[in-house]
TrEMBL record:
Protein name (database record): Transcription regulator
Gene Ontology MF term list: ATP binding; kinase activity; metal ion binding
Gene3D superfamilies the UniProt entry points to: 2.60.200.40, Probable inorganic polyphosphate/atp-NAD kinase, domain 1 (3.40.50.10330)
PANTHER family (alphabetical): LIPID KINASE YEGS (PTHR12358:SF106), SPHINGOSINE KINASE (PTHR12358)
Matching InterPro entries: ATP-NAD_kinase_N, Diacylglycerol/lipid_kinase, Diacylglycerol_kinase_cat_dom, Lipid_Phosphate_FormReg, NAD/diacylglycerol_kinase_sf, YegS/DAGK_C
Keywords: ATP-binding, Kinase, Lipid biosynthesis, Lipid metabolism, Magnesium, Metal-binding, Nucleotide-binding, Phospholipid biosynthesis, Phospholipid metabolism, Transferase
The keyword Cytoplasm is assigned to this record: no
Any one Gene Ontology cellular component term annotated for this protein: plasma membrane
Length: 304
C-alpha cells in the first residue's frame, strides 16, 4: 500500500506520483494499492486500515510528516509493530531529512521495486513521546527521526504556518534566521536514564534517532536508527551573534566542537521546562513541553 500525500512539497508530490504510477503500470508492475490523504492525520487512518486489511508493506509517499503519520498508524492504541508488517517511504517532501539516512544512487523506480520485493530491510528503533497538546492535554505520539524543543520547534511552527515555497534548504534557513531575531532561551532540567545531567538555560534541545533535521542540518552526527540509543543534543544559552556564527557548522556536524554544545546518549529522557516550549517532531508541531521520551529498540521492520 502506498499512502500518498498529494499536497506535500507544495503539491508537487501528487503530480510526481501520478507520473510514477503510470510508468509502473506500463512496466507491468501492478501488485500495489494507492490511497491519497485528504487532510492532517489522514495518513494515520489509512495506515491503520491497511494494516488491519492485511497489507504487509505500508509506504509513505511525501515528507517527514507523512512518514510520521503512517508510523503512528502502526502504533495506534499503544500496540507496536507485528513482524508481518513493514514500514517504508518514498521521500518527496520539502525537508526530506529522514531520507538523508538512506541516500542511494537508485532511481525512484528502482527504489519502488526494492520496496515491493523487500530487498533491503532492518529493525529500526522508534521513539515514544509524551507531551502536552496545544490545548494542554497529555498526549502520546511516536516518531522515527528527530524531536526538539526551543529554536528548532519555533522555526518549524513558523514554516508550517507560513509555507515551504522556497524548497527545503531555503525555507528552513529563512525561517531559522527570522526565528533567531525573536528567540529567547528557556530554563530546563534534563534527566537521562534517571540521572540529572543538566539544569539551566537552553537555546535548543534535540532528541535524535536520525542525524538530520531542519532541511539538512546534521544535528546528531553520530546517530544511527538501529543502535538502541537516542542521541541527545543540548545547546546551552547562546547570544544571537554566537548562534549566527554556529549555524553554518550545524550543516556539517562541526557544531559538536562548540563549548556550549553537549551530546549524550540514552533511552529514557525527561525534560521539565519553566514555560511551555514548542515541540517539533519529524517536521510536525503537535504541542509543547514538558516532555517524556522513551526509545523502543528495533520496534519496526523497515524496508528501503
Amino acid at each position: 500500500m502506498f499512502v500518498v500525500n498529494p499536497v506535500s512539497a507544495g503539491g508537487r508530490t501528487g503530480k510526481r506520483w501520478q507520473t510514477i504510477e503510470e510508468r509502473m503500470i506500463r512496466n507491468g508492475i501492478d501488485n500495489f494499492s494507492v490511497e491519497y490523504t485528504e487532510g492532517p492525520f489522514h495518513a494515520f487512518d489509512i495506515s491503520r486500515r491497511a494494516i488491519t486489511s492485511g497489507y504487509q508493506i505500508i509506504t509513505a509517499v511525501g515528507g517527514d510528516g507523512t512518514i510520521n503519520e503512517v508510523l503512528n498508524g502502526f502504533c495506534a492504541g499503544g500496540g507496536l509493530f507485528s513482524s508481518e508488517n513493514a514500514l517504508s517511504f518514498i521521500s518527496t517532501g520539502t525537508g526530506g531529512d529522514f531520507n538523508r539516512m538512506f541516500l542511494t544512487a537508485e532511481e525512484t523506480d528502482q527504489r519502488i521495486t526494492s520496496i515491493l520485493h523487500a530487498k533491503r530491510e532492518k529493525a529500526c528503533d522508534i521513539v515514544k513521546a509524551k507531551y502536552l497538546s496545544w490545548k494542554g492535554d497529555p498526549s502520546i505520539r511516536y516518531y522515527i527521526n528527530v524531536a526538539d524543543l526551543g529554536l528548532g520547534g519555533e522555526t518549524c511552527v513558523r514554516i508550517n504556518r507560513g509555507g515551504k515555497f522556497l524548497g527545503g534548504f531555503l525555507s528552513f534557513l529563512t525561517a531559522v534566521l527570522v526565528t533567531l531575531a525573536k528567540h529567547h532561551s528557556f530554563e530546563a532540567t534534563v534527566n537521562i536514564d534517571q540521572e540529572e545531567i543538566f539544569s539551566g538555560k537552553l537555546t535548543e534541545l534535540a532528541l535524535a534517532n536520525g542525524r538530520f533535521f531542519g532541511g539538512g542540518m546534521m544535528i546528531a552526527p553520530d546517530a544511527e536508527i538501529d543502535d538502541g540509543r537516542l542521541d541527545i543534543i543540548l545547546i546551552e544559552d547562546m547570544k544571537k551573534l554566537e548562534l549566527l556564527r554556529c549555524l553554518p557548522q550545524v550543516y556539517s556536524g562541526k557544531h559538536r566542537k562548540h563549548p556550549k554544545v553537549k551530546m549524550y546518549k540514552g533511552q529514557k529522557i525527561e525534560i521539565a521546562c519553566d514555560q511551555k516550549v514548542w515541540l517539533e517532531m519529524d517536521g510536525e508541531t503537535p504541542g509543547t513541553s514538558d516532555l517524556s521520551i522513551e526509545l523502543i529498540p528495533g520496534a519496526v521492520r523497515f524496508v528501503f
